[in-house]
Specification:
The complex is a heterodimer of chains A (1031) and B (342). With 1031 residues, chain A is an alpha/beta fold. In chain A, 54% of the residues lie in helices and 9% in strands. Chain A has 42 helices and 18 strands. In chain A, the strands form 5 sheets. Chain A has a 5-stranded parallel beta sheet with strand order 5-6-7-4-8, with helices on both faces. Chain A has a 4-stranded mixed beta sheet with strand order 12-11-17-18, with no helix packed on it. A 4-stranded antiparallel beta sheet of chain A has the order 13-14-15-16. Chain B has 342 residues and is an alpha/beta fold. Chain B is globular. Classes of the chains: A alpha/beta (1031), B alpha/beta (342). At the A-B interface, helix 29, helix 31, helix 32, helix 33 and helix 34 of A face helix 2, strand 2, helix 8, helix 9 and helix 10 of B.
Amino acid sequence: MDMEMDIPLPDELELLEADSHLFQDSLDPPSPDPYTCSPQLELEQSPPQSPSEDAVLFDEKRSKIYDNAGPEVDDEDWLRPVQDRNSGNDEEIVEVVVVEEEEEEEKIVSRYVSEIDGDFIPVTAPSGGDRVYAKICRVDTEQGAKKLDFKSQSNGLISEPINVLLQKMEQEAFTKALQASSEDQSDEILPETQVMHEKLWVDKYAPNSFTELLSDEQTNREVLLWFKQWDSCVFGSDIRSTSDDILSALRRHSSITQHPKPSDSTFFSKNKGHAWSRGNFRHSNNLEQENSKPKGFQDKWTKKSRLTGPPEQKILLLCGPPGLGKTTLAHVAAKHCGYRVVEINASDDRSSSTIETKILDVVQMNSVMADSRPKCLVIDEIDGALNDGKGVVEVLLKMVSSERKSDTGKENVTKGEQSGRVSSKKGQKTASLARPVICICNDIYAPALRPLRQVAKVHLFVQPTVSRVVSRLKYICNKEGIKTSSIALSALADYTECDIRSCLNTLQFLNKKRQVLNVLEISSQVVGRKDMSRSVFDIWKEIFQKRKMKQDRKSKGSCGSLRNEFDSLLSLVSNRGDYDVIFDGIYDNILQLHYHDPVMQKTVKCFNSLGVSDVIHQYIMRSQQMPLYAYQPCIALSVHRQVAQIQKPNIEWPRSYQRYRTVLMEKMDKLRSWQNKIPPHISRHLSTKSFVEDSVSPILHIISPPTLRPVAVHLLTEREKNDLAQLVSTMVSYSMTYKNIKPDPLACKQENEAALDASSLSVDPPIHEFINFKGYSSGHYALPLAVKQVLVHEVEKQKILQASRSVHLTHGHDKQNMYLAERESAMQSTQINHPAAFSGKSISNEKSMINSGQCVPSGSATSPIMDSSRRDLSNAKLKPSVNQKKPTRSSTSFFDRFRKANSKGSQSTDSAGWKTTTLERDSRPLIFKFNEPGCATSTFLVEPCLEAIQQCRFHITIDLIGAQIDVYIVVQVTAVLVILIPGNNIHELWGIWIVTSMMSCHYLRCLMLENLLLKNQNPGFCVLLEFENGF
Amino acid sequence: MTRSSFIKKSPKTSRNWSLNKTVHICSSMGPSGSGKKTLIMALLRQIFGISAEKVKVENRTWKIDAGSRTIDLELTTLSSTNHVELSPSDAGFQDRYIVQEIIKEMAKNRPIDTKGRKGYKVLVLNEVDKLSREAQHSLRRTMEKYSASCRLILCCNSSSKVTEAIRSRCLNVRINAPKEDQIVKVLEFIGKKEGLQLPPGFAARVADKSNRSLRRAILSFETCRVQQYPFSSNQAIPPMDWEEYVSEICSDMMREQSPKRLFQVRGKLYELLINCIPPEIILKLLSELLKKLDEELKHEVCHWAAYYEHRMRMGQKAIFHLEAFVAKFMSVYKAFLIETFG
């Protein structure tokens, strides 16, 4: 310390003296003031005496004294070296010194405390004991300028004293190391401060007011209009009248693009309340003067808006490519209308659980903070991550829909509206939107947004014109002092597609690098290029539409622009990916273009390209060689070269291929199901392919023979009957029939009948659809309805034979053993007349059946006991196909047996009932009347499901004496009843099979015979089905 | 009537090689309507007797473990006691699993006949040419490994899509489409059986229209019979509806050549495709009908038809290639017209 104290030189001191003469002047009259001796005084005075204790703290004080107290020259002698040392060795300390020195300047020194009205610091000179009071004030303009200077060039302020000191030091030949380190120090300060204080231009020049917005005027105004519609809901009704005026004004303005109001932005942005409404008033008055619109319109509009309250669509969806100012618009417009913006963006947690409370907070609560403006929710980047966006969208939709429901629930619209307003104001509703919500997205067609699109008011952002962007850019460049040409700027804007954010970033970046924007090499310069993926529609448009090239004619010729175009399109297509859809779109829309193509060369080339792309695609799919996808965009390019036109193409989403796919699948399904229905020995020969290829048309011809007369069956000649039988057998074996269908426009094959009959019959597996080409009338003969009905009937008859066979197969085969055992036991145990006889009979039949085996026909095919109903069938049975013979026979034997049983068991059966046959078949529910002797008549409504009708089999459950009896009835010419009673453990078969003709019977009546079940708990009982016409 | 006569011609051929029971695997190929299935049936009957004709359809769901996941496959099989018939290509891209699991499973189980001897069963695989390459590769090992207990009969339309590896393991039997005189014979036989009187030349006309497909011939024969029985010698044979439609398209193409017309044609082509008409046939027919053109053009059109059919088979979306052909034809035709008529 002492050594250093020796160092100072007299001339340095002189300099310092000269420097601080100003202060000396003010300090000149030394008047010690005793009464304001604050406790700080001691502290202040202590540093000079013990300077080395705490370097930082003391240095402050010292430096104060050093600068301030001019007269204490001798003090400077020892103070200065300390500082020298500090500046040389310790950077931190120097910094502090610098700061302090700055503060130092702000003091005004006075001898009297009373002269100082602010903060003050008493300073006492150690030698003379003079005390001065230094005022701390910050009003100097000079000071302010210096401060600013300091910010931009950090060493501006310290330059004087320290530089001087440094010079001295050099003169004194201080060590070189000292020098170097001090230079280092000043270097290091520089970047630090600069980083701290420079903003991104994007933020710096973000528009603050509505008029500064770059986006499309009309969009801006519509957004504003939307905001205004919230007023009545958000701000209450006191300012409604004016806001209506504004609304109408905005309305009018949004159609006529004019410059918006000049002065009211300040009013708007302040707060709600009077200033706000006054602003509106003034503005509206202005507009009133300008506009000569009829009052009626306005009134109507006011009334309307008064009724609507919050706007119809409570959510505003802004979408557009990045950098056009969507977020900015949302913020500015909200601010403009007096809202406080609360933004939720992709950086927040946006799962639906957390977002809900957040949205509710914003939307329904008023803040108690100082900023009492109503909030406006801005959900940015809603399409960002799929899951995130979905959560938000769900919540929003829930709110909107709940609102809707409550609205519709109200009886009176106006009342409902009022109550809705009240409740929304108070925030009573659990989930409703009471504040404007703006969603911002880039891709409107993002799948997560699909539901939102329907409820929200959608605004598509379009690019601002290049000139607007350029003028703005120019303005900013001027402000920043960059020299640019407007050509370069417009090229830049063009290149970034009017993305002002990217323009600004680029400019700032170039500015930093001290580069000048080069017109020609924008693409080669480091310009941030967006990794854009545009919507598929845009891509198709790009492909089909030639870009208008303005500047390419100037300098570069067509070659360069060609390359440019090529590049951009290539990157566009390849960025999108999804080539399948792209090519589908090209394919679907290409023929709608108007390109000049006399010999269709271009078309051929295009289709060749499409074919190539398809082949490549298939190859990639098969071999999984994904790198080959790189060649797909080039194909799109070649198409572009061929057909691109200047006119705007009219592009539709490609649906044809998808439609084709779905319809094809549908038809294939139909074919398959049909094929499954056909018995296997036939269907095995048919593949679906060969079916449509070879078989459909002939089959359709075959099943509709023109020779068949529409007369009753018995009137046909022998040969015709023969034909009919053959036809029926064909239809049965191909499992075709006619079905009642509702006459729909597609399958209206026989219009003449369909006009008369509401229910027309058409082929059941709708194979006629396979030849139903558009714009093609097939020459197929359509059968008259009567013939069809006959056919249906006959086919059903045929089927019944097969069905009974199948019943026999299922029940007979599966349960044969049990059945037999049951029968035998019944025979042994109970010896009752009728049942025993019956069961004995049946057993013998059964046994003969079993003995004869499954396939060997038992008995003669033509039974003598066949009644008249069978006669109808005889035709069909005469010529059954080879494979049908066996079942027919076996079933015949069954029938015989049943007939015998019935004739034995039932006394009351009149054969008249059997004979009633009509050609109609009715599908109405049958009512089974189950008459038990001694019991009340119980009626069962059987609901024949469609399938059951087709199968001609009903399944009813009769609750008889507590036991459930399952009855399987095959209704048609014959009816077979299989009665199963679930016993304790086993299903006992109480089998009575009754063969009867049930055609045209609307109601069935089941009679139990007297000597049955009730009397003797005997399984062998008989059930008779009695049919009565028109029962 | 439709079916019974089908079987007629096959016994001759099948008898020859049913004797040769050592032939494990036969692959029969030929166009549709030439009697592949019938032949196979006849062969089976020769081997197993009448029981081969008792078939039942089974629709079963198979659960297949494929690594981490299980795949549910539904497969319809047609089986008798001794043979199983299935078309694995129904499973689409999952046909590999059918071949790997189901067929292997079937092939492993060896039936034992009544006398306790070890018999063998026959697997009939339909539409082998539609099998994916993977499936075909997995098939070839199965073929060899289980050949003792299982014989495979592969049935396909074209052997070119069956890999060499499989073809070399098979006895390849090519079944030609019947010649027209053969068809005529069959038709006459049917007429005799059904007791119909055929006017001279009528059968020949039917055969001529049948495109050498016996099935089609018989069906159209029956159609004629239904429409007008005492046959008149110049009775119209009802055409296939879709063929009519194709010829309609052709006349459209001839009448006007422009993108607009092409668009109309596209709609019609879609109509055909929707109704399950295979695109290959459409193209073939198109080119054939267009052969009515001038001699000079015939060659070129045929060339292009072949070209686009090739592409169509390589590609996926048939409509692209069909339409490309139509466009090409229009272009060629228009150029020709301009050249000739100025």
